[in-house]
Amino acid sequence: MSWVAAAGLPADVADLHLLVGSYTASGGGNATGISVVHGTTAHTVAVMDDPSFLAVSGDRVYAVSEVADGSVSAFRYAGGALEHLWNADAGGDAPCHVRVDPSGALVVTNYVSGTVTAVSLEAAESHTASVTASDGVVGAHGSGDRVVVPESAVVTGVLPDVEGPVEDRQEGPHAHQSIATPDGTVLVADLGGDALHEFRVTAAPSIDLVRVHHLGPGVGPRHMAWLGDGSGADLVVAGELDGRVYRLRRDESGTLRPIASAPAFSGPVGESLLSHVEVDAAGRLVVAVRGRDLIVVVDTTDDGLTVVGSAPCGGVWPRHFAQVPGHLLVANQMSDAIAVLPVGADGVPGEAVAQIAVGSPACIVPVPTPGRS
User: Fold this and answer.
1) Looking at the domain assignment, is residue 373 inside a domain?
2) Which domain does 126 fall in, by range?
């Protein structure tokens, strides 16, 4: 029997390739950068400080560096390796999320400074091609020859300087995640200001505020997901600070208003913090809860939110997860491992069947297996 099989890793999961963003020594973590995982083996493919969130589009991989005066890096992914292409200013401190927007801009949210940045991908790629053609710069990340995107390709918006009732977490705006809307705009969750800021983003690049959607005091919106497609879809928001999930719907004025909410767990919130939320294939919500170290599944039928069940996350401090056929892969940051959880017919995970050792994992993105289309 092979070592992978002995470790209990299911065959379909063992065949996956995963890109994993982690915290490094600069952020109190144990990784050295971005890792590629195949089977139970992880190895570093890009050395950088605190690549806590990744985005993949085609063969391009984008990673934030969640440090003061942060940055975002672009790579080409091929054959299980990353070739560094360019860096850009994140426009703030502690960038914690990055996403490729349909507009053609890369959208970066900066937690500590409460800012959101758009990077023109066309301008970044064009500049990189020009520099490479003239200087022969190639991909060693962190080298003195790295390509830096010009300021003209980057624009930053600042969230309003507001406060919330949770004094140690809401002393100012904290941009956490962005998500594209069915209406062609971008929503940014402001954990510090208990609000969702809606922007019009273009690849020029440009960022223009459209409206602000306010949530209740102390919600602390962190991550969002859409229920369904099209302009009639409802938005789901995970309240990091109050332990609840919210279902929002646009009214006639275009404002997103809560139509349902539910606690993700019973009892006092304390140090229990919601992190990532996604919608599964059956339309249920899957929510990770740090502190209690749970994966919670929520039914969304009849315009409501009802907890179906919950299960241990297979480790400590589930910061992020990825859904793959039949399994949930959970980035348990404080366990230095990804837990592999089988998913039942009701959407609730079972006990972990395997652990994949990765230092301080914070984000998991499945990528195509090298050599396969």
Assistant:
1) no
2) 3-367
Q: For position 311, which CATH number holds?
A: 2.130.10.10
Please give the C-alpha separations between residue 204 and each of 121, 124, 153, 155, 163, in angstroms, as whole numbers.
9, 11, 8, 9, 32
* Exposure on the CB side of residue 240, measured as CA atoms within 13 A: 24
Cα distance between residue 295 and residue 274, in whole Å: 10
In whole angstroms, what is the distance from residue 74 CA to residue 320 CA?
21
DSSP 335: G
pLDDT tens digit string along 304-341?
A: 999 999 999 999 999 999 999 999 999 999 999 999 99
Question: Which residues, given as ranges, of the chain have pLDDT below 50?
Answer: 1-6, 140, 373
The total of structural domains in the chain comes to 1
Cα–Cα dist 320/372, whole Å: 26
Residue pLDDT, tens place only, 129-172: 999 887 655 554 555 568 999 999 999 999 999 999 999 999 99
Query: What does the DSSP assignment read for 81-127?
Result: EEEEEEEEE-SSS-EEEEEE-TTSEEEEEETTTTEEEEEEHHHHHHH
Residue 219 domain flag: yes
In a domain, 194, yes or no: yes
Task: Please give the torsion angle defined by the CA atoms of residues 288, 292, 297 and 301, in that order, rounded to the nearest 10 degrees.
Answer: -100
